Amino acid sequence: MNYGYQPYVGKNNARKHYVHIFFNILLITVLLCAVIWGVVFCAQYIKHNKQEKIAVKESYSALYSNKNYLELIERMDSELHNNPLQPEFLVYRGFSYYLLGEAEHDSSRRSVYFSLAMSDLRKVPIVYSANDLLGNVYFCIGKIYYYYGKGYYNLSIEYLNRAIKCGVERIDLLYVLGLVYSYVGEYEKANQILLRAQDLEKNDLVLLAIGVNYYRMGKMDEAAEYLEKTADISAEIKNKEKALFTLGTIYFEQGKYENALRYYNQTIELNENNAEAYFQRGEIYYLYYHDNIKARSQWRKTIEIDPGHLKAGKRL
């Protein structure tokens, strides 16, 4: 029988086993802590980044609300340099250019602003499809075409109608659309649109446009009704003056010269430099009262105000 020494290793193996477990637990704990810390850090970073983006967007909104359009354009130039097709930035810059153009009296600068606005706004429907933003973009494009004049009226009508299809229903849009329809001779369509605008809000400009369109259609009673309303409610002298003068013209054409004279007198009370009202008053003195002296005095006043007035020149 062999009685040689055999080392006992059971306790050492157990110790190593527990040490191994301990280190594994420690490692897992460290990893978990790292993961948790990473998640917390990322969440804080995302939250901070989100708050920062919100603050930046709010600053853009504040610039727009405060009409700091040039500063906003500079900020948008920087944003669009990095992201040239971001719809929100295109809209901010496009609207800013448009509003600068609308307020500009110099025609060449106005044209430049409108061109820059169109360059931005025409890109928006390509990269964005939601109606909430597109409606106002189409409205702005349509209004720029309206400002461009006669050759662009059909494009103005197209884009303004697109805005309506997107759900934009506002008095200024309907008013411009009604005007453009009247400029292309579609008076019935124009008044359908303008009456919708009038349902939204009582407005002297809309009333005036409706009355003038009825006059152009030969519907004199309807025209007189809306022009009377305009003259009654308008605080804007030019609108009131045009309403009174058109009323005078309606009654003059109907041969109701006393009524016509009353409205021409009121027109001149508002604007003593209305050459056409003096001329028409001269016509009434000549045709109805057969008073050549008074008539000639009115025509001379017409020429004094407007030396190029051909009809008054022929009368004299």
Largest sheet: none
Span from first to last CA? Answer: 158 Å
> What structural class do helix, strand and pairing data support?
mainly alpha
Please tell me how large the radius of gyration is: 37 Å
Q: Would you count the extended β strands for me?
A: 0
What would the principal axes of the Cα set say about the shape?
elongated
Overall mean pLDDT stands at 88
- Helices and strands, in order, run as HHHHHHHHHHHHHHHH
Note poorly predicted spans: 1-9, 45-54
How is the quaternary structure best described? single chain
List the helices and strands and how they pair.
Blueprint: H1 10-65, H2 69-82, H3 87-103, H4 107-121, H5 124-127, H6 131-148, H7 153-165, H8 171-183, H9 187-200, H10 204-216, H11 220-233, H12 237-253, H13 257-270, H14 275-287, H15 292-305, H16 310-315
Helix pairs in contact: 2-3, 3-4, 4-6, 6-7, 7-8, 8-9, 8-10, 9-10, 10-11, 10-12, 11-12, 12-13, 13-14, 14-15
